[in-house]
Amino acid sequence: MKKGFTLLELLMVIMVIAILIGIALPRFQGMVEEGNIAKAKGELRTLQTAVESYYMHNNNAYPATTSTALESALSTASPSIIDHVPTDPFSTSDYVYVMGGTGSKYYIIYSVGPAGNGRASITGDEVVETNGDSCIYVSNMSQDAKP
Fold it and tell me: N or C: which end of the chain has fewer CB within 10 A?
C-alpha cells in the first residue's frame, strides 16, 4: 500500500491555512496602525521636549514657524538638541509645526494621523482646533485650553 496524502487531503490543508491567514491578516494590519500611533505620540513628545529646550537656551524664543525651520533650528542649536526631525509615520514628510498668531507664545506639532488628513491650528482665542480624530498632536498650551 502506498503511503502519502491524497490530493483531496492536501487541498483541505491548504484551504484551512488560507482561512487562518484570512482571519489573522486584518488583525495584523490593526496592530501596525496601533504601533504607528504609539510611534507618532512618542516622537511628538520628544519634539516637544526639544522645542522647550530650544526655548530655554535661546532667550525664551521658539523656533520659526515652519517645519523646515524647526529642523534647522533644532539641529544647529547649541547645545545640540536633536540631529533631525523624524518623519511622520502616516505621511512621507516631517511632522507639522505651527505657531499661534502674531505675538503668540503657543505652538502645535502634529501628525496627519492614520487617515492621512489630520490638521491642527490655534484659533484666535488660543484654543487648539483639529479637523477630527485622525490628528495626533502636542502643544505647549495648558490642558484646560485643549478641546
Answer: N
Distance of alpha carbon 103 from alpha carbon 118, whole angstroms: 25
Mean pLDDT (the chain) is 85
Listed in sequence order, the residues at least 6 apart from 68 whose beta carbon sits closer than 8 Å to its beta carbon are: none
Domains and CATH numbers, the chain: 7-145 (3.30.700.10)
Distance CA 103, CA 64 (A): 13
Cβ 95 vs Cβ 44: under 8 Å: yes
- Sign of the Cα torsion 115, 117, 121, 123 reads negative
| Long-range contacts, 32-37 (Cβ 8 Å, 24+) | 33/114, 36/89, 36/90, 36/114, 37/113, 37/114, 37/136
Q: What are phi and psi of 95, to 5 degrees?
A: -65, 155
Length of the chain: 147
Distance CA 51, CA 36 (A): 22
